[in-house]
Structures are given as structure tokens and as C-alpha cells.
Amino acid sequence: MRLQTKLALFSAASKVIVLLLLILGLPKLVNTVALHNADARLQLKEEKMYQIIEDQGIESFITEEDGNAYGSYNLFREEFISLEEINSGKVVNSIENSLRKVENEVVRYRVLSSTFDLGGKRYLLEIGRSLATIENNSKTLQKYALYVLAAVVLLTVFTDLAFSKILLRPLNLIMKRLQRVEHPSSFTPKKLNTTTQDFLYLNDTINSMMGQIQEAFQKEKEFIGNVSHELLTPVSILQNRLENLLADPETPESQLEKLVDNLRTLHRLKNIIQALLLVSRIENEQYLRNESVDIPQLAQEVAEEIKERAEAREVSLEVDLKGDFTLGKANQSLLFTMFFNVVNNAIKYNKPEGTITLTGRSLPTGYELCVTDTGVGIPAENLPHIFSRFKRLHAPDGESHGLGLTIVKTIATFHQIDLSVESVLGQGSTFRFRFPA
């Protein structure tokens, strides 16, 4: 899972947890706020009531005809105000829930009770607000609070996603640059435009590491090239001497068989050296790419060249090349070697009376050529290593030196050809070449 995805999931999960906690505690919180708001409203009405009594006098509310009491309810009995004269010496100043009977109906109220003295008399002022109204307001507040919380969570999640994408952009650039590297020599160190020190350190470390790899790889290529070139001369001298001894009539017959075995071994050594030298020269770009090559025609030429070898192994070779395609900036001899090695391997590792099929077709992005055989196949665990140097995965003739497919891959990379392999053990393999348009 990508780092950006993990960060996004963690951010979303943490916000969901916070949202759930808020949802669980929201009713109690909103009820507390609603009651506090109702109490503040009752206290405000209490102050206004005292101001009216001070301005208009207590007589405007309580008269002898009213029986020393005043009461007022609004139309829906949501609020009430009562004022009465009391004889008790007890002082009451409180806000609490209380039940009141209004028109034969019991209603729950939040009641503010306050006593005050005026003109030698003591009065009790009560201001109430229906608890049902407060609860309705509380539910409305809860609903809108949930909407706001959900909107805030969504907004922060998307904000975090955008921020993490921006924050991790340098890391994505580093990853994409490394993914495009098909060969150490194709890596180009670049500076990273960011203020995040961790990413700058990572980029500098990768640049330094790739520089060391390029240097080591270059030394290896130079060493292989130089050694291969230097070994060819003594090997050729030894080969000439052995051939002379073999042609000498004075050579004892008992030595002739040993000389033939030595020549065969020397021939294998020479082939290995020449293969290494070829790979080294291709990697060092000592070959020119100044030809335009007709790929279907070249594949047909390879088929005709190797047809007799296939017949000798009782393997049928079928060709089905459709469409025209010319690869510019190519080297025809190298491409011939590439195809020849693949078809030759298909013959070598095929079954008696097996089949090899060369198929070609045009694609919107270029041209695809496949070499399919009905051979022994390649185990899945060996597929990642088939292009490695000196990796002998199977060699029924004992003559393979493990460089044939290395040469194929090197030539394909040199021409920017996408090469892939599909294989089923016991059924056969398909080498797929995709040429860029």
C-alpha cells in the first residue's frame, strides 16, 4: 500500500473516530448548551421584569381585585410569568425544572424563582419556559451540529488528501524517476525542488548511490571488454597450434582424440569471449544505429536461415507475419542476432515433433513480434533470471554458456524494444517483442 494511501486512511479513520465520539457526547453537550441558553434567557427576562416594576410600579401587575397575584401564559403555553405576594420569610433564588398544571394539563417547565421585597412586602417572581420547547430546540441544534460536523470531517479529509499529495509529490517524483531507469547508465542525477529536508536527503542519497553503481558498472563493462579482447589473441594462437598438431601426420593417433576434445573446449571458450565482447560493445554503444530495418522481412530471413536446423531436430517452423513495419535508427545485424538466438533457443529446448511459431502484427503503438514454442517451458521462479549473465537454467546439450538471452536482452534494450516472456512449464514459452512506433 502506498504511503499516500496509508496517510489518507489514517486521517480518515482518526476523523471518523473523533466524529463518533462527538456524536456519542453530542446529545448531552447540546442539552447542556440548550439549558444554559434557556437559563440565560430567563435571567434576562427577570432583569426586564424588575425594570418594568421599577418604572411602572408593582400596582400595574398586582391589585386587590386580582387577589395579590399575577399570572400570564403565552398562546401555546411555552412561557409564563407569575408574580404574587408571599408571607414566607424564606428567600428563593433558583432555576430548576418544575411541573405546572395549566388548563387541566400538566406541563414541564424550566422555572426561574426569585424573591424580592418592595414597600414592606415580599413577592415571589417566577418565569418559566416549557421544557418541551427547550428539548425541541436541543434536537434541532443536534441535527444541525451533526451536519456541520460531517461537513467539517469531509472537508478536512479532502484537505488532508490534497495536502498529503502536495507534501509527497517530491517522493513520487523520485519513485517515477527510479521506475524509468531500465539500466544504471540511463540514470541522470537531478536536483529536487522541495523544502522538505528528508526528501532532499533521500534524493541526494539515491543520486550518490546510483553514481557509485554507474561507476562500478562502467568499470565492469570496461574490464569485461578489455579482458575479452585480450583473451581472444592467446585463444586464437592456441587454436591454431592445436589445429596444426591435429593436421600433423606425425601426431600419434592416441593424442588425436584428446586434441579434438581440447579444440571443442577451446571453441566454447572462444564463443563465450566473443559473446562477452559483443555485450560489452553494445552496452558501450560501439555499434551504430543508422539503418532502417523491415522487421517482418528480417524475421522471415531468420526463419529461412534456421529452417534446416529445425528440420534436423524434427521441429516444424511456422511463420505468420502480418502488416508492414520499418524500425528506424536500427542495426540490422544486431537485430538478426537477437531473433536468431531466440529461435535457436526455441529449437534447442523444444520437444520432438514440436512447433515454433513466428507471429507478427501491427499495433497502434508500433509492432509486435512473438516467438512461441511448444518446448519444455521455464519454471516461474526462473523467469526473472533468464536474462542474467552466465545463468544456465537448462541446457540439454551441455553446450550453453548462459549468454544467449543476455545478448537478446542487451540488443533489445539498445533498440528500446520492450521484451517480455511468458512460459508454462511443460507446455512452452513465448518471447514477445514490442517495437516502438
From TrEMBL:
The keyword Transmembrane helix applies. GO terms for cellular component: plasma membrane. It comes from the Bacteria. Its EC number is 2.7.13.3. This is histidine kinase. Residues 226-437 form the Histidine kinase domain. Keywords: Kinase, Membrane, Phosphoprotein, Transferase, Transmembrane, Transmembrane helix. Pfam families: HATPase_c, HisKA. It is found in: Membrane. It comes from Rufibacter immobilis. SUPFAM superfamilies: ATPase domain of HSP90 chaperone/DNA topoisomerase II/histidine kinase (SSF55874), Homodimeric domain of signal transducing histidine kinase (SSF47384). GO terms for molecular function: phosphorelay sensor kinase activity. It catalyses: ATP + protein L-histidine = ADP + protein N-phospho-L-histidine. InterPro entries: HATPase_C_sf (IPR036890), HATPase_dom (IPR003594), His_kinase_dom (IPR005467), HisK_dim/P_dom (IPR003661), HisK_dim/P_sf (IPR036097), Sig_transdc_His_kin-like_C (IPR004358), TCS_sensor_his_kinase (IPR050428). It is an enzyme of class 2 (transferase). Its main location: membrane. The chain crosses the membrane at residues 7-26, 144-168.
